[in-house]
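Following up on my earlier thread - several people asked me to post the actual chain instead of describing it. Fair enough. Here it is, all 133 residues.
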Amino acid sequence: MELVRAGRALLLRESPDAKPHLWFVITDPEGTPPRVIAVMLRTAQHFTDPTVVLAPGDHPFIHHESSVHYSTARWFSVNAISKAFLAGHCSLQADMSAPLLTRVRDGLLRSQFTVNALREDCRRCFGESPQSR
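Reply from S.P.:
Thanks for posting it. Predicted structure:
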């Protein structure tokens, strides 16, 4: 089983004393060393990114409205995720459905909170042509 790939959902603690958050991996590994782009979910509040808000049933982990927090989208080293998994700071959750992965990816391209350089990397990763912008 491939630990890290597009569609994976990871409960990840970024440091040993940090609260774990659900992260959605939205790209397959690429590069040397391999890395992926992931985005974190947070409980929906009046100040969170409204681009994609998920409800219970959209993913088995979600029990209340949750915002895909596109300002957190970033590259993760596959090696770092593997190390976090071995150290007990990361666990696999149910994979995203194909429609959910598409919805989260589309939101990343639309959100005003996505870093522009990351948006461009994602357009390339998702195979989006410049004409479809």
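The first helix runs from residue 78 to 86. That should answer part of your original question.
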